[in-house]
Amino acid sequence: MNSIRNCSPQMSFFDSVKDQISEESAPQEFGNILYNRWLLQFHVERLRAALAALKVRLDATENKESSIDQQMLPSDNTYVDDKNKGMNGSWRQAPEPGDVFALIKRGEGPHLEFKSTLRVSLPPKQDTPQYVIEGEVLKTVCGFLNKDGGELVIGVTDNGECLGIEADKFKNLDEFQKHFSNLMRTKIGIQFYAAFVFGHVVPIQDKHVFYVKCIPSDQKVFAKVKKKKG
């Protein structure tokens, strides 16, 4: 048993004893008490190895997210991607109000969707929970990312009526944009939000809408959407 206790820390406990002890032979060779102690230590070592591997993965993920977060592009949009040109040149370029107004007049299609609000339910479905309203926005963004890309305008009804994001009752426009950003980061992932999604507040007449441009992701994207009860 000394060779078992003094096994190299680089080796898993099981590898160090698998040639000496088998689960079938251990009771006969060492007795039930020693066998149970060995089996317990084996599972402890396996758990320690799993936790160590998980810590390495978590550390790597945190470092990656931190790096991505520092490289997040500013809202004034100095980024240019020649492969993904959208409205007015660069897909991250802030759109002109007239261009967004033309989109609204054009109506919904395979690559264009409208959402009345980001979080507030309106009549006749005013009892709809906030997480359901937000979930519909998240699913729309995911759908665009997983297919050919597309554009989403929040603050517009399905029939093209401009309600404005003022209907969401945030304190100001910055709070709206911050809430949208937090949803993208926590429910879809900062790596996808940073690389494939751009959102911008656009004035339309005496209101504001939120224009979102999505380009196809090079990886499958999933949204953490809470299902509606019942």
TrEMBL record:
Recorded GO MF terms: ATP binding
Key words of the record: ATP-binding, Nucleotide-binding
Stored Pfam families: SLFN_AlbA_2
Keyword Transmembrane: no
Residues covered by the Schlafen AlbA-2 domain: 108-224
KW Translocase (keyword) present: no
Name assigned to this protein: ATP-binding protein
Organism of this sequence: Candidatus Accumulibacter contiguus
